[in-house]
Amino acid sequence: MRSQRKRSSACWDAFSWAIVTASRGRRYPRRGADPFAAPKRASAKGVLTMSDDWKSQEWAKDFWWSGKVTRRRLLGYGAASAGALGATMLVPAPWREAFGQAKPFKIGTLQPLSGTAAAGGKTALVGVQMAVDRINKSGGINGRPVELLIQDYESKPDVGRRRAEKLVVEDQIDAHVGGYLSNVCLACMPVYEEAKIVNMISVCLDTTITTTKCSRYTFRPFDYAPAQAVAITPYLINKMGKRWHIVYLDYAWGQSTRDAYIEEIKKNGGTYVGGTGIPLGTADMTPFISKISGDFDGIFGILFGAPAVTFINQAYDLGLTKKYKLAGDGAMAESTHLPALGQKVEGFVGVNRYVPVMEPPLNTPYHKKFFDDAVARLKQIDPSGPLPDRYVQSNFEAMNALKIGMQKSGFQGRQDTMKLIEALEGLEMKESDDFPQGDKVLRKEDHQAFLREFIFDVKDGKHRILEVIPKEKTMVPPACKFA
Fold it and tell me: What are the sequence ranges of the domains in the chain?
């Protein structure tokens, strides 16, 4: 055990250690079976169910500390193995001596570490781990350490809900930080509400999460589509053109974001000429893109990750970016996408809560610390050294917001959830090491945060800030009624 820790000590500086615990003698389902169904007969050694092999990829290898399962054996298992093993991946043993017998807080995090959203899920996990590392190294929360329990939901809503139920029922988490895909966030919100634990969303942008489907137990400590649309639409109409076609991923986030932009385009004197919805998971978008034509000024894209890269590449190849101006949600041109897009994304204009630049107003010591730490960790995932994206930022800050709420409320466990909720409602987060993106406020009426937005373009393969929109100018009236 000591030799294992010594060989792996370097990873503690970049990643939270992880422990996977398994019951002695437990038998697991056959390959291909549902790990949450009743187990059938297995060999004496047990057969682990596998669906993806994210743990065997290079980026994940230093992310594991094996506990009762040998490191070599563990790295051969896939994502569903986490469910079969109990998926209890904990931020680790190295802090235990410092905290003595203090009982750790269990914080669950659902992330898409395989499937359509895997690339973003990996950077999102880096962000929440950065925050947990800082918390444990600076004395924990209320004198207790934090254990991070990770679940890969494979970019699937049904899997996400089962994983959430496991975190809540079996692992008995105290709170949750995570999400990423909006359809998964929406599917899991009732699980946290029924268990009466705080759900701190860290990526999901679907408008209804804090409007028509809001929950007293769910918070979003970052922006959402209505605020983004309010921030960038005047720029679109006044500086790029009045007539817009919207291309969007045809699921919860894309649909609600499309609606927010349609409303703001009309309010600002522009015209929405039509839209193209592309199903999530579409590998070849040519049949959709080839039908986009007409008399309008620009295309506004609402896509993320691999779908965004596919769209921009194919739109460029079909000549659309020469005929029309291209703008969109900042997720289309995250720092992790730029190498794959090259010159094809040149001139793109977007809006985002975070861009990885050290120019004003982000040239602060707070942002420098965050930036340097994130770059070092991301290099372990991708040796090419991508810069941090908004998924690192919002996961990092979501965990820190939860920490502050727990401190303010004196939180000790689920019995204090209502005190925690009251501490988070109206929380003002000042620009600091905890919140390097800038000041923000978590509105009491709907648990929606407001923060400054960056309008940027891509020039010479890099982000360039064009305008900074203060948080006060992004606010829209609340549209939530808690049950």
Answer: 2-219, 226-352
Query: What does the H/E/C string look like for the chain?
Result: CHHHHHHCHHHHHHCCCCEECCCCCCCCCCCCCCCCCCCCCCCCCCCCCCCCCHHHCHHHHCCCECCCCCHHHHCCCCHHHHHHCCCCEECCHHHHHHHCCCCCEEEEEEECCCCCCHHHHHHHHHHHHHHHHHHHHCCCECCECEEEEEEECCCCHHHHHHHHHHHHHCCCCCEEEECCCHHHHHHHHHHHHHHCCEEEECCCCCHHHHCCCCCCCEEECCCCHHHHHHHHHHHHHHHHCCEEEEEEECCHHHHHHHHHHHHHHHHCCCEEEEEEEECCCCCCCHHHHCCCCCCCCEEEEECCHHHHHHHHHHHHHCCHHHHCEEEEEHHHHCCCCHHHHHHHHCCCEEEECCCCCCCCCCCCHHHHHHHHHHHHHHHHHCCCCCCCCHHHHHHHHHHHHHHHHHHHHCCCCHHHHHHHHHHHCCCEECCCCCCCCCCEEECCCCCEEEECEEEEEEECCEEEEEEEECHHHCCCCCCCCCC
Domain at 226-352, CATH homologous superfamily: Response regulator (3.40.50.2300)
Under CATH, what is the fold of the domain 2-219?
Rossmann fold (3.40.50)
pLDDT in tens, 210-268: 999 999 999 999 999 999 999 999 999 999 999 999 999 999 999 999 999 999 999 99
Q: Given pLDDT bands bounded at 50, 70 and 90, which one contains residue 31?
A: very low
